[in-house]
Amino acid sequence: MWWRYAVGGAAVLAMGGAGWLLVGGEVPPPAVLPTASAQVAPPAQETEGGAPTLPEATPKTREEKRFGRYDKDRDGAITRDEYLLSRRKAYAKLDRDGDGRLSFDEWSVKTTTKFATADRDKSGAMNAAEFATTAVKRRPARRPACPPQQDDG
């Protein structure tokens, strides 16, 4: 029984040593993210060996890209109108008659369209077979393919 403790202790020492080797005893300095004013490298130029050096785009974070999509006038600030512009576009798509008001039918356009598609006989009501076509189609959950277990006995 004592050998289990000895093997466990050796494993702890080995993992600690491996961790020390991987880290090298030093913690690397944190990476500095580029600022929003970072520029793209200049166009490709030839080096002494004749091989062109390709320009590299500066990486942007998701938030910088998202900010850029909203800041339409590129002044570094998002106004209320700029912020609401995407919602106004979505609202305009729903407002089919362009009167500036959403009727219930305009607001529920997806549901209204689904009903109209399912009502094949155009009776204004769905029978059981027509209603069955409106069910949400769910994808079955994927289960990983596991190899069959083998008995060790």
Automatic annotation (TrEMBL):
Residues 58-93 form the EF-hand domain. Pfam families: EF-hand_5 (PF13202). Keywords: Kinase, Transferase. It comes from the Bacteria. Gene3D superfamilies: EF-hand. The keyword Transferase applies. One of its GO terms (molecular function) is calcium ion binding. Residues 41-66, 133-153 are annotated as: Disordered. PROSITE patterns: EF_HAND_1, EF_HAND_2. This is Histidine kinase.
